[in-house]
Amino acid sequence: MAPDALPPFAWRRRHWLAAAALGLPARPASARVVLRYAQLALLPQDLRLNFALSLLQLALATQGVEASFEPTEMAMERPRAFRALREGHIDFMWAALNDEAERLARPIYIPLYRGLMGQRVFIIHKERQAQFAAVNKLEDLAGLTAGQGVGWVDTTILRAAGLKVVSNTYDALFRMVARGTIDYFPRGALEAVGELSLRSQDAPELMLEPRLLLSYRNDQIFYVRHENKALAAQIEAGLRSLHESGAYRRLFDTHTFTKEGLRGANLERRLRFHIPNPTLSPAANAIPDRYWM
After folding, report:
1. What are the phi and psi torsion angles at 40 (to 5°)?
2. Which has the closest alpha carbon to 3: 66, 57, 64, 65?
3. What DSSP character marks residue 97?
4. What is the pLDDT of residues 212-255, one digit of tens each?
5. Which of these, 111, 157, 225, 263, is most buried using a 10 Å CB contact count?
6. How far apart are CA 93 and CA 80, in angstroms?
7. Alpha carbon of residue 163 to chain centroid
8. pLDDT tens digit string along 142-197?
9. Better-predicted residue by pLDDT, 233 or 30
10. Whole-structure pTM over 0.85, yes or no?
């Protein structure tokens, strides 16, 4: 069950237990807030939602804020979510670093996933294994067609590197790989294993390609409305506190989404193709090394 689906007392109790397990000091809440966010097009069992909301709640708790979260009624692709944020229909969202997004909303420049969303492994059809086994340089990959989501900055990054990309909705991209409409679906290193597991019944023909990796500097961060300077300051101070105390690393190392995703990706065994990210702003490029893996 997703955290926002829990009854208020159970959600607060889970937060207290998580905070204690991560070694955070007990700090009475001086404020209680309900923060709205854009519902993502994810399956209910997808744990990436749990990780992001748990991280944000723990960060705000270090600032004396007890936060609960309320999703929108309808799922949104990224462009619509940014519009909802600017118009005040939601209070925060998380999305990839890129200069356009940083103009649309107020960014908090601390990566959620230590840069692993910029380490892209591929979901492919099982019958295409031999084709990908023959890929040994970026030019080989340029002969194949990738799929990326509507409004994703990754589309711009891949095209700038000379790769062919088509865009569609998140769910449609899995169907496109299964039908052979696209050759591969690049996913963040933490995402692919869980996504394949959740779709193993409906799409048993899909698999994780075992040997290739697209690598570029990027990750997801939290965004708030430009006007909401107070919330931005609380989130940034809270995330810094979690990193300084070691609580962030304990959450990252123990949470099922990050732990199992990283283990399944086998990054150290992959042939890595480094490509530039032309969408990063100077501020994003200046994020300290301690926040990256």
Report:
1. -95, 155
2. 57
3. -
4. 999 999 999 999 999 999 999 999 999 999 999 999 999 999 99
5. 157
6. 11
7. 22
8. 999 999 998 899 999 999 999 999 999 999 999 999 999 999 999 999 999 999 99
9. 233
10. yes
CA distance 232 to 218: 20
pLDDT in tens, 275-288: 999 999 999 999 99
Give the domains, in start order, of the chain with CATH numbers.
3-115+218-263 (3.40.190.10), 118-215 (3.40.190.10)
Measured between alpha carbons, how far is 156 from 225 in angstroms, rounded to an integer? 24
Q: Does 17 have pLDDT greater than 70?
A: no
Instruction: Report, as an integer, the average pLDDT of 262-282.
Output: 96
Radius of gyration of the chain (CA): 19
C-alpha to C-alpha distance for 176 and 183, rounded to whole angstroms:
8
Does residue 86 register a pLDDT over 90? yes
Residue 133 to residue 151: CA distance in whole angstroms = 30
Give the E-state strand segments of 24-83 in sequence order.
31-39, 65-75
User: Can you read off the two tokens belonging to residue 160?
Assistant: 């700038």
- Residues linked to residue 138 through DSSP beta bridges, in sequence order: none
**Of residues 81, 47, 84, the one with CA closest to residue 256:** 47
Nearest Cα to 71, choosing from 140, 134, 5? 5
Strands 65-75 and 31-39, bridge-based pairing: parallel
Q: What is the rounded distance in angstroms from the CA atom of residue 239 to the CA atom of residue 112?
A: 9
Mean of the per-residue pLDDT values for the chain?
90
The per-residue b/e assignment along 188-214, b for 16 or more CB within 10 angstroms, e otherwise, is: bbbbbbbbbebbeeebeebbbbeebbb
